[in-house]
Amino acid sequence: MGISDMKEAKTKEKSRRIITLSVNKEEREVPVHDNETLLEVLRTKLHLTGTKEGCGTGECGSCTVLLDGQPVLACLMLAIEAQGKKITTIEGIAINGQLSPVQQAFIDHGAVQCGFCTPGMVLSATALLANNTSPTRPEIQKALEGNLCRCTGYNKIVEAIESVRNKA
Amino acid sequence: MKDTLIGKSVPRIDGPAKVTGEAKYTVDIQIPGMLCAKILRSPLPHAKILSIDTSKALKIPGVKAVITGRDAWDVRHGFVETPRYPADQYVLANDRVRYVGEEVAAVAAVDEATAMRAINAIDVTYEELPAVFEPFEAMQPEAPEIHPVEIPDLIGDFKNIGGQCSRSFGDLDAAFAKAYLVRKDRFDAQLRTHCYLEPQATVAHYDQGGTLHVWTSSMGGFRKRWHLSRTLKMPANRIQVHKAWVGGAFGGKIDLFSHEFCTSLLSIKTGSPVRYVAEREEIFSYYRHSQPLIIDLETAVDKDGLILGQKVRCYDNGGAYRGSSVVMVFLSWGFVVLPYRIPALDYIGYAVYTNNPVRSPQRGHGAPKIRYAVESQLDMIAEELGLDPITIRLRNARKPGEVLPNGDSIKNAGLLECIQQAADKTDFVNKYAKNRSLQMASGNIKRGIGMGVSAYFTGSLIYPNNSAAIIKFNDDGTAHLLTGATDIGQGAETVLAQIAAHELGLQMEDIQVIAADTGTTPVDIGSWISGLTMVTGNAVKKAAEDARRQLIAAGSKLLQAAPEELVLQNKRIFIKGTDTSVPFDKAIALHIEEQQGDPIVGKGSRRGHEKAEIGPSLKNARGAWSDSYAFDAQVAEVEVDIRTGQMKVINALTAHDCGFAINPILVEGQIDGQVSMAVGQAMAEEVIMNKGVTLNPSLLDYKLPTAHEMVESGHLEITTESYEPDQAFITKEVGEGLVSGILVAICNAVANATGEWPKELPIKITIAEEDWR
């Protein structure tokens, strides 16, 4: 019952305030409790359900979002900590309906199966390529080490990312 | 076949929704006014429930309903419900709990914290009973009784046997008497689990008109509706299971789960939508995993390694209710007899009740465990006889057209080619001999190569037994495909759209797939019995043929040409070999005009097995099992550090006969995923339990493979069937059979590196004493 007890203790805290979050280049005012995670706020208050919760304890990487371009786990971060930072979720990656090169490569290379890890994977890959346009295979594996996938064995995900080296 | 969509790596149609976060899974369904459900579970492995007091919980502000076994009628359910194996599990515990985590009560409240407070406020008084966790202990006559159960034909004086599958044929005594070599080994395969990334989740909404709407992360909505209808005592037309994308399943989301019933009943009781999402810790500790299996295997061979007979005993640690354990012990028989000729067999599989959580299928359902035993032992025999692993496999492998002991034909089985080509491509025999010669040489890093052979069935008869499909044309010549198929990530919707588009001369974008909704789509066998492409795919093909026939009839009038002269291409009807054509929309308009408004709707269907009346017997394995069987030979190369025990799979090759691949990139995706799952299962994964309590209930402690454990995975497709116009096609299973061969290939590769065969999974390397001192 450990996690549930923590959750209960957490919400006993009644503090509530309005904060401004910069999400996908939009300023969003949102009422939050101090103890609410960024993941809860994104999913239930801003209805950005593309960010997934696979474990809630920072193990699976399904909740990966970018904070000032760096991948973070939204389930382990409080929403109030994200104030003043640029948050990018999976919904902010395609521009005007145009898929990013990473997104397109995931489709073209069969890197998507059930799709539950895909948002986190795409964001981790996007962050990697922004810092390193030509990552080696071990560098890609390192960048994805916090994102679990049970469907693909990672092969086609890595191939997809390799295909957009120097393009993304 | 020019311009054909069949055999082409068409990108999956759900790709854009999934890469943008738009795809809605059950966990993403949000309905205004939705309540949160939580479940109270037994803290004890075996106890009588003396009383449940929910009064304090009901007084908490924000608590809308509390349910216990008293609210759930006297109704039981089971993965199997037959006269021999009647349903044995209540949806909420009645007077007794039989494992830690069994569901005792459920609440619906305005938010999660309130629901948890209510759960903690329910008082349950238990009287603890003695519990038993291991099959051999549970089978002793003096063991605590978990269920009063009688198997009329039980072989042996055993207790707590929930199910038994036995089958013998041939003269086993004679086989063992004339054998050149007999080997007897025990193999022990661990408790492991699916690790679907989307947690178990259900949203239920009982509307004012008396219809229950359900979204649930599952492998087949029609199977879920059947269970819900029986346990809620509601007619099927009043339960609509809606489509949501499914975040992985791997066998773990097909049974009825208590949370699905509770969420539904809580919605009925409150009139509000209710949502339940399991915590990852709950899934590891209390949900259904695969089945730990102990296998005693005796094999008699002649001096050339030809199998003369086998005696097999399987002991399935089946958990507190039957779950799928009684199917597991049937399937273990099946996966003994499928790949190799066995002239004489004595098989008994016992599904043993223990005070552990209930078991479910997991990718391969029996095959990975029994193949691990058979293929490991075959290599040991080869070693004793001085044969190489390839020779002994080629000697025993079934040939095309052979008939299985139950009467099924394996048709154009490509097993011999799989073995030979996998061996050739990897230079297997030379590498194997070299690695073996280096086992005793100096150096800590040893290399090994190993092969595993397996086979799998392609669909069978189990509820819902059949699939149907509807294709409806629109005025402009585009079409909708209505199918009950559930895409759990394997690409079901894409493959079915490919079949429909191909048959109708349409492009992928001309077909809109409406899927997995029990209210609007026809029945579907589901994504769990390994027959979706063949069973639902052929239903779609027939529906397309039906629509095409109507379209061509109209085109024939417009073009004044005989129907057999016409072909469909690019949304037009052409006279074969000419440029003369009419567009679909004109033919459809004519059809509407002449056929009293009929806009062209095509219908097709297929059964899970074309001819058999019922599925195979779980008691004695007799009767038809499947229309089509897939075969494979897989090779793994490993590196083992004998001083630290560290292992690494260097590469994997899968040679497989999947008939033909409708979408090769989707097939590759299935193979890569199974290779990865096998790497985890061979080397690291285990749900560790002590007296019914799970000790490692998290993805990290379970040791799921990460991107660092990615293995170079090669594919070698042996094509044995083709896609023909106007005929049912024969595809072969590809989504779960390929986890087995590679699993034992890794074991055999470790043995090739170290000289020791792993008798337990996950593999542990014995480290020489002088090395760890």
Can you walk through the features of this model?
The complex is a heterodimer of chains A (168) and B (773). Chain A is an alpha+beta fold and 168 residues long. Chain A has 2 domains: 15-90, Ubiquitin-like (UB roll); 101-163, Orthogonal Bundle (DNA polymerase, domain 1), CATH 1.10.150.120. Chain A has helices at 2-12, 38-45, 101-108, 118-131, 137-143, 155-163; strands at residues 16-23, 26-33, 64-67, 70-73, 86-88. Chain A is globular, with a radius of gyration of 16 Å. Chain B has 3 domains: 26-129 and 204-249 and 253-276, Aldehyde Oxidoreductase, domain 3, CATH 3.90.1170; 293-460 and 614-772, Aldehyde oxidase/xanthine dehydrogenase, molybdopterin binding domain (Aldehyde Oxidoreductase, domain 4, 2-Layer Sandwich); 466-607, Aldehyde Oxidoreductase, domain 4 (2-Layer Sandwich), CATH 3.30.365.10. Chain B has 773 residues and is an alpha+beta fold. The termini of chain B are far apart. In chain B, helix 9 (325-337) runs parallel beside helix 10, helix 10 (367-385) packs parallel to helix 19 (740-754) and helix 14 (492-504) packs parallel to helix 15. At the A-B interface, helix 1, helix 3, helix 4, helix 5 and helix 6 of A face helix 1, helix 3 and helix 17 of B.
State the main characteristics.
heterodimer; A: 168 residues; alpha+beta; Ubiquitin-like (UB roll); DNA polymerase, domain 1; 16% strand; B: Aldehyde Oxidoreductase, domain 3; Aldehyde Oxidoreductase, domain 4; 3 domains; seven-stranded mixed sheet; five-stranded mixed sheet; 28% helix
Second rung of CATH, namely the architecture of the largest domain in chain A: Roll
Mean pLDDT level of chain B: 97
Number of strands of chain B: 30
Helix content of chain A: 25-40%
Termini separation of chain A: 44 Å
Helix-strand makeup class of chain B: alpha+beta
Which regions of chain A contain 5 or more consecutive residues with pLDDT less than 50?
A: none
**How large, in whole angstroms, is the Cα Rg of chain A?**
16 Å
How many domains comprise the coordinates of chain B? Answer: 3
Which topology of the largest domain in chain A does CATH recognise? Ubiquitin-like (UB roll)
Q: Rough shape of chain A?
A: globular
- Helix content estimate of chain B: 25-40%
